[in-house]
């Protein structure tokens, strides 16, 4: 039943994503990131979706400048979030999970072309205007963690990044063997 409801919600959100959903998504992401950086969270969900997105970018940039972080901690915290989303939706099918990833990333200003697992292209990324190449690589641990958590494991590897002067980001996600 939960999976059926999640499928219906996914279809509805793909057609129209209310700004409140985006704002709540950004708040959850900010809370997760703050936990990983071991800094206090901030309230952004009450801002407009665009201002919440800017506030999240500013928050993460500030965290990367002022807090010490190991990429593994960022990954593990994001993995836990992805795993919770997997349990909440009940999704296990690759196609449903891929649609969910595309929807979630659209909400945070990132366009994904392609299907997961497999190769994806990111022709536009809101954060490429904020992050240095080093910051982008660090924050990619969040991407890798959330996606691996959603899929129950796996590895996301970037081969090109907009922040490094490329036209688009290119990455490949491979699931761990034996996962469904």
Outline the secondary-structure elements.
Blueprint: H1 2-15, H2 19-37, H3 49-66, H4 71-89, H5 94-107, E1 110-114, E2 118-125, H6 133-151, E3 155-160, E4 169-174
Antiparallel strand pairs: 1-2, 2-4, 3-4
Tell me how many strands there are. Answer: 4
Q: Could you give a short account of the major beta sheet? A: 4 strands, antiparallel
Shape: globular
Question: What are the low-pLDDT stretches, counting only 5+ consecutive residues below 50?
Answer: none
Helix content: 55-70%
Radius of gyration: 15 Å
Calculate the terminal CA-CA distance, rounded to whole Å: 19 Å
Beta-strand percentage range: 5-15%
How many helical elements? 6
Quick summary:
The protein has 180 residues and is an alpha+beta fold. It contains six helices and four strands; from the N terminus they run αααααββαββ.
Summary keywords:
6 helices, about 55% helix, 4 strands, about 180 residues, four-stranded antiparallel sheet, alpha+beta
Description:
The chain is an alpha+beta fold and 180 residues long. Helices cover 57% and strands 14% of the residues. The protein has a four-stranded antiparallel sheet. Helix 2 (19-37) packs parallel to helix 3 (49-66) and helix 2 runs antiparallel to helix 4 (71-89). The longest helix is centred in the N-terminal third of the chain and has 19 residues, at 19-37. The model has no long low-confidence stretch (mean pLDDT 95).
């Amino acid at each position: 039943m939960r999976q059926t409801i999640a499928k219906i919600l996914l279809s509805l959100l793909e057609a129209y994503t209310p700004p409140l959903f985006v704002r709540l998504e950004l708040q959850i992401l900010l809370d997760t990131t703050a936990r990983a950086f071991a800094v206090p969270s901030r309230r952004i969900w009450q801002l407009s979706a665009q201002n919440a997105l800017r506030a999240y970018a500013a928050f993460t940039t500030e965290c990367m400048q002022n807090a010490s972080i190991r990429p593994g901690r960022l990954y593990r915290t994001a993995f836990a979030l992805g795993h919770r989303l997997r349990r909440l939706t009940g999704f296990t099918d690759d196609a449903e999970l891929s649609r969910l990833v595309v929807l979630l990333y659209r909400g945070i200003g990132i366009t994904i072309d392609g299907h997961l697992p497999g190769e994806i292209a990111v022709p536009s990324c809101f954060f490429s205007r904020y992050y240095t190449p080093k910051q982008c690589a660090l924050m990619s641990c969040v991407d890798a963690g959330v996606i691996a958590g959603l899929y129950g494991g796996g590895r996301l590897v970037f081969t090109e990044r907009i922040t490094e002067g490329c036209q688009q980001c290119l990455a490949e996600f491979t699931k761990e063997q034996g996962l469904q």
